[in-house]
Amino acid sequence: MPFDQLDLKRAIAGDERAMQRLWSQHAPHIDAVVRRLCGDPELAADVSQEVWMQIFRALPSYRGDSQFGTWAHRIAVNRTLNALRKIRRLAKLEVDIEDDSAVTENESERTFVAESIEQAMAKLSPGARAVFVLHDVEGYTHGEIGEELGITPGGSKSQLFKARAKLKKLLAHLVDDSIPVAGKGKEHVAPV
Amino acid sequence: MSHLSEEQLDHLIDQERTRVQAPLNEWRTIAARAREEGLIRGSAEGSSWRGTRPWMQAAAAIVLLAGGIAIGRTTAAIPGSSTDQAEQPAMATAAPVSNSGPITQVGGTTFASVDEASATLERALSDYQRASAFIAANVSGPTTIDSSRIYSARLAALDQVGNAMEGALRTAPHDPVINQYYLATMGARVATQQLAARPVGLRLKGF
Q1: pLDDT tens, B139-153?
Q2: pLDDT in tens, A43-74
Q3: ∠A79-A45-A111 over CA atoms, to 5°?
Q4: Is B62 in CB contact (< 8 Å) with chain A?
Q5: B-chain residues within 8 Å CB-CB of A6?
Q6: Hey, are the CB atoms on A14 and B62 less than 8 Å from each other?
Q7: B62-113 confidence digits (pLDDT tens)
Q8: CB contact under 8 A, A174 and B8
Q9: Smallest Cα distance from A26 to chain B, Å
């Protein structure tokens, strides 16, 4: 049953059933972005709790100007990035983000065999992962990413380029597997 | 060392974007946190508007919407209530209903815009709710057989009002007046259930 305005009113009033319905409908998407940004399942689970508390706290301020999922998604991204900053995972990256030498590979990384793109993403530095996830997966523009991370759009583009290059290496073992070359010849059309 | 092509990477990203994943936590974990913070008021079993186990709701504490107690005590004249204290805020919430047209002056107050009037209304509602919560917490009296009947009658009436408000919300989900009255009605209902659930003779000390 879709979450509607009536459920929203009930959730604001503290109705657990309405809140659970809201969570059930949106948790797969909200938690997915948290998981991708964190890169660590345990950390992501903790951050997800904070995200959902913030969503519930902020419910009265939801004006219906956008889809609820979009509104909640923004909260999830902001809250997750804040959490990552707090634990200083992003701090180093934000210093290094304009530094071209930031992305380096050691032997263990080169020999790392990723089983999935999620695992490969987890191998990215926190900031590179954030840029990659926000741009390529979530559809943010470089300008929006710059605002979220406190970097320039150029820095975001640079970080994305490095992230994609690294992912292509990390996922190289999949070349011989059955990844179709979908849209061969098509340009990368992620938002700029 | 071989690399994925741009297209192959894009394909993987597309798969990742659409991949359905289980939530990171179970609902009971989220619910426990929400309950700790007071975001959940009541329990899932009794939280339905027409719940079959209303005594579960009676345990809920809705401070935000505690105005219902003040309204109820005023209208029912239950022993121990303070009519004078509750009457004024009750009138305050009634104001918006009688001013549905483009009126710029209400009583002695002039509004320059709808936004200003809305902000005033929100402040008034907030003040009203806090005052009602204070009254409910500090003015109490014993529950009697008569008051129990009054509570039952009030619950039935509030159900009817709530149903009407639900219908109105479906038609006009963003109407601020309907929203306020819907929330106030819900609060009044839960607060009344709290009162009705108290053992006869037990004094209400607060939420």
Answers
A1: 555 556 666 677 777
A2: 999 999 999 999 999 999 888 778 888 999 99
A3: 100
A4: yes
A5: 166, 169-170, 173
A6: yes
A7: 444 445 555 455 444 444 444 444 444 444 344 444 444 455 555 566 777 7
A8: yes
A9: 9
Residue B47 pLDDT: 43
- Residue found by looking up tokens 């002039």 in the block: B110
Chain B hits for A23, CB-CB cut-off 8 Å, are: 23, 27, 30
The three-state (H, E, C) secondary structure of chain B, written as one string? CCCCCHHHHHHHHHHHHHCCCCCCCCHHHHHHHHHHCCCCCCCCCCCCCCCCCHHHHHCCCCCCCCHHHHHHHHHHCCCCCCHHHHHHHHHHHHHHHHCCCCCCEECCEECCCHHHHHHHHHHHHHHHHHHHHHHHHHCCCCCCHHHHHHHHHHHHHHHHHHHHHHHHHHHCCCCHHHHHHHHHHHHHHHHHHHHHHCCCCCCCCCC
| Whole-number CA gyration radius for chain B | 23
Among A10-24, A97-111, B82-96, B191-205, name the one with the lowest average pLDDT.
B82-96
CB contact under 8 A, A171 and B1: no
Supply φ then ψ for residue B110, to 5 degrees: -110, 135
Identify all chain B residues contacting A110, using CB atoms and an 8 Å cutoff.
1
Q: Say how far apart CA A115 and CA A176 lie, in whole Å.
A: 13
